[in-house]
Amino acid sequence: MKSIHSLRMRASMLAVGAALVSIGAHAQDTYPARAITLMVSAAPGGTTDLAARMISDPLSKALGKPVVVENRPGGAGAIAASAVKRAKPDGYTLLVQYSGFHVITPHVVKAGFDPIKDFTPVANLIVAPQVFVVRPDLPIKTLPELVSYAKAHPGKLNYASSGNGSLQHVTGEMLNRMSGTNIAHVPYKGTGPAITDLLGGNVEMTFTTAPPLLAHIRSGKLRAIAVTGNVALPSLPNVPTTATIKGYEKLDVSSWFAVYAPANTPKPIVDKLTGEIKKIMATDAFKRKAQEQGAYAVYMTPQELAAHTSKEYQTWGKFVKDAKITGE
Fold it and tell me: What are the pLDDT digits (tens) for 107-145?
């Protein structure tokens, strides 16, 4: 016969479980009761900011409360991520994060957050391949021509990035390792300054997502020579993908942009958020906007995003270690 103590313990545990279920159901029923903040880890105008603004208005309409975008750039994504990490896990402060900041930067510098333990995945929004661009005054129109030029003119080419450990940085190192070139890395404090110096003639090339490049490509100020991956961009239909270029098929580097909540955010709240985001992403308006900016709408459930984040974190961690990439 069970002791009175064990029976009381069982009854207490059942009561706690019932209370948690009740709290979760109540949270789902009443959430949201006020404005929600989407904390963006980059400055306005970039792809991370674009991703946040693509969902802010429709999500506000769906939930019946304001959804406000707040840009917190700096620290290679650490300022925004740390703010959301410390926020109350109640669904009112969310992080819209760029993959390079989330799964690469923590391997290179002391970012102050753990991308796996400190956040609850909500949904992935868009995926954007990298576009290789060079100054139009260079005699380079294809990726093989870039490699040939780099080998024929050692020390003459530099590539700009948004910082040490950024996706542009690791893309450049992937290209060097794959092709046997030694194109020098010039880090900047963000994609904006990098592109400004590229346009000013201080560096020869860069690779980043399409949104900040499209206007310059269309005006002829920059020349696009390749898009990473195996899917052509509708916004750059005449630019070949690396999958179609012999010897560079594995140069598949894409950025992804996702929504995270603080760790321990109640599941009913996460389910409500991801459900509404999924509906928004299924609309033609969202898909069209993503394609116009050189990206693709790619929804992931919280479980899929958790698995994807973990896999990418491990993959890039190994690459950073093998390539000896540092924050110096």
Answer: 988 888 999 999 999 999 999 999 999 999 999 999 999
Q: Token pair for residue 187?
A: 């880090």
Q: What is the pTM of this model?
A: 0.83
**Domains, the chain, ranges and CATH?**
31-127+256-322 (3.40.190.150), 131-244 (3.40.190.10)
Q: Round to the nearest angstrom and report the end-to-end CA distance of the chain.
A: 67
Whole-angstrom distance, CA of residue 208 vs CA of residue 133: 9
Q: Could you tell me if 328 and 164 are in contact, meaning their C-beta atoms sit under 8 angstroms apart?
A: yes
Q: How confident is the model at residue 232 (pLDDT cuts 50, 70, 90)?
A: confident
Token pair belonging to 210: 């399409």
Is omega for the bond preceding 240 within 30 degrees of 0, making it cis?
no
Q: Residue 201 phi/psi, 5° resolution?
A: 85, 10
CA distance 241 to 294: 13
